[in-house]
Structures are given as structure tokens and as C-alpha cells.
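Q: What would this complex look like in 3D?
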Amino acid sequence: MTETIVTNKDIYQELKRRVLKGKYNIKMRLPTEEELIDEFNASRYSIRKAIKQLSDEGLVYSVKGKGVVVLEQTPQTNELNLSLDQVDSLQVLNSTHDFDRITLIAGFQQIIVDEALSHKTSFAVGIPVYAIKRVRRINNKNAVLDINYFNAQLVPDITPEIAKGSIYSYIKKTLGMKIAILKRQLRFERAGQIDYEHLNLGIDNCVGNMVSFAFNDDGRQFEYTESHFIPDNFIFNQILKF
Amino acid sequence: MTETIVTNKDIYQELKRRVLKGKYNIKMRLPTEEELIDEFNASRYSIRKAIKQLSDEGLVYSVKGKGVVVLEQTPQTNELNLSLDQVDSLQVLNSTHDFDRITLIAGFQQIIVDEALSHKTSFAVGIPVYAIKRVRRINNKNAVLDINYFNAQLVPDITPEIAKGSIYSYIKKTLGMKIAILKRQLRFERAGQIDYEHLNLGIDNCVGNMVSFAFNDDGRQFEYTESHFIPDNFIFNQILKF
DNA sequence: GAGTGGTCTAGACCACGGT
DNA sequence: CCGTGGTCTAGACCACTCC
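A: Here is my prediction, written as C-alpha cells for the whole assembly.
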């Protein structure tokens, strides 16, 4: 067989290409696992893994006894809005999108966690944390207010200079810490004093609030962050399978 | 061995119980896959599947070469807020939570998709859809405004009576249609005329907007829905793994 | 180097869909 | 009934962590 060399990693990419180009289009199904095993000369495990990736992205859906159906396409909604999807935290987003943006330090101090802060952040009472406020100025608007708390024992020696850049880059590259998991809550709330101070809310009186708890690969929570953002600029995507 | 009978399904449940009860606590790791294979008398596949479930819930995190670490617990935030997580659509939520709630029909008609509606809903121009507006009154407040569009070819014969109850129940039980996947966008926006008309916004001038595209197991989009909700009452949870 | 989870293969049986 | 994807087993090798 004059088969092009296909690593197992590429199976997913090739299948995705075919779906997007309409080679497998709506009302059709993907070839059966059996057929794909033959075509790519791979094991069932590898084929199923590739299909699962497509499924996680919402491109296809597997039905037992039936096959893998291609879903109708929904329009990409990346128009002029920022899109925060799966892998992006706000810090990552800053480096991957080429928006005109500036980070302003609005507060920087080291404090000890008291009862109230512990309840909010779920850090233990008494530990030292860096409390940092930063304003993200995007396209000439103060669009996001980040309020970070970093466990100073796990993330030591943060400086305003580091905060002005990427703290995550500092954590990963300089400290060599591995970020494992991020638990997020998305709410939206009445704007508070601090929001009116730092954000260009205009007549709006509510903010989005993305609360993040970040854990390293030892299972320790090293960060609590609230990101307050102004209306009409952000979209969060999610895919639910049944 | 006087081993209690453990089906493969229960491995996950048992491991979860141990993590939550602190039998495997922070700073410890889970037993190795090898050990769990022996204990549960199951294959590696089954053990790994169970651990993956725990990992997807944010309870543990697997590190290559190291083991499976237990994550510090974060507080449950189900206080007085509704929590819309993975499996819940608004309709499901209504039946699973015992809030004092009423559904009011604010609009019900069958229309033909025009250019503008097509752009918004991604339904094809010219097809008939049911356009339904419903107000969810929760704890004596008009908290959610649902604006549904159902493809009338795929979801025929909806009546106001059905809309007053659960359309999803009608789709699943009466029509026998399988709901496959739901793509969601979460935004928050300046409140519009329609929101002031139907929601108890008070002085708030913004709404959360959860946009949903639902697909059946033939890959066809049968629904487009916008759920507008008032501030300070809803939380969305998400877990991101790196 | 020893031990861990990540990837991959080969093969079996089950559960569901459609004919 | 046949064909499909879902689950499960057994075994191999690789990549990473840590001593």
C-alpha cells in the first residue's frame, strides 16, 4: 500500500479535516470503527480515542448500534468578542490574542489570611498571601479587573514587575511548578465600589465575575482569583453531552 | 477472599467515597493502579476509567511517573443559589431542584425563519419554527426569561399546554427523540426591552444570557434557546485540566 | 534504575439500532 | 437477525518522576 505515513496523533486531525471540509457531511455517518482501523492501520483504541476528541469538540456524536453521526455546524462566534474556552485562563488569553491591551497594577501587597478572606478564598487562616489587583485595558477600555490571591508559601517572591507581566509564566518557568487543575465559577452580580473605581462600566451596574481556584500537581491550592469584567465583551463556550 | 461483590461500576463510587471521607486525603496519593487492580480484581482499563471520572470531577489529578494526587477540597457553593452544572439544562433543573417555581407562557406562535432569525439561530431560512417565550418565576421573582425556537419539522405539534410543562419531556417521551448534544454560550449583556418587560430586574440593567443550540442523535439542530436571567442568582461551574 | 501513569495493540463479549 | 458502538481483559512498551 502506498499509504502516507500516519502517526496515531494525526488520525484525529485527519478526521477533523474531513468533517470540516464536508467529506463526511451531515446526514452521513463516519465510516465504522472497523473501516477506520483498516484505513489508518491502527488499533481500535486509537481510532476510538480520535473520535472521542471530535466528540468532545461537538463535531460528531456516537450512537450505540448506529454509528458516529456528524453534527450540523454552528457558526463560529469569534466575531469581535473575546472567547474564553476550555484551555484559556485570562493570563493565557492575553498572550494568545492580539488585542491592544495593557495591564495596570492597581494594588500589590502581602497580607495574612483572616477569617473572612479564608471563607471566600478557602485558604487556611493565618497563611501569607499576595493580594494583587490588576486592570486589563483592552482596546482602550478598562475591561477586566483581576483580583488575585496567591499562597505566598507556594508562590514566593512575586514582585510588581512579575505581576505586570505574566504570573503564570513566572510560576511555570521560574518556579517550575506544574499547574494541574482549575475550578471555576461563573456568576454575574451587581457591581461593587471597586468595580466602579477601576472599570469603564458606563451606565452598566453589573459585572461578570469569574472565580477561579487553581491547584498544583501536589494537590495544593495556590491561587484564588476573581476576574470582574464589563458586559457585552466576553463569551464562554461549553459543550454538554447526554 | 471474603471480598464484597464489587461491580466495575462501583469502583468509581467506592474510590470517591474514600476520597471524600478522607481515607485518601491531601498529601497522600491514591494506591497505584497495580494495587487497585488487585484490590478490586478488575482490569487496568476499569481502574483507569474510574480514576478518570474522579479526575473529571476535580477530586484527583493524575501525574505521570508520580501517581494520582488528591486535591484540596473546595467548599460546596450550593448555598441559596441555583447551580447549573454539567448535565442540567434549565428544563432539567426545574424538575431536579425543589424551588418554589412557576412557568408563565409569555408568547407562543409558529413562524417562518427569515434572514435575521436565521443568522441568530442558525436555522435555515424558510423553515417553520415554534417561537415560545416563557417566564420562570422562582421564589416569587421573575428570574428567568426563556426564548425558545424549535424546528417544527423535527419537533412537531407543540402546544401551549406542553410548553407550560416540560418540552424536553415531550421531546423525549412522546416523540421518542434522542437529545445528543448541547452547545452553549454564556454571555452577559445590557438588558433589552423584552427583559424589562418580563423580568424583575429592579435597578439592575444587565442580564445573563445563556444561548443553547441543541442537536438530536441524527446530528440535526432542533432547538435554539436564549435564557435571560437576573443577576446574583445563578452560578455556573466548570473544571479545566492542564 | 525502579516505579509510576500514558499509550497502544489484540481480542472478547455485551447492548442497542435497524431490518 | 446482523452490524454498530460500549465495555472489559491481558499484555506490551514508552515517558516521566524520584531516589
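A: To summarize the key features: Residues 182 and 214 of chain A are 4 Å apart (CA to CA). Confidence is low (pLDDT under 50) at residues 1-5, 85-89, 91-96 of chain A.
Q: Very helpful, thank you.
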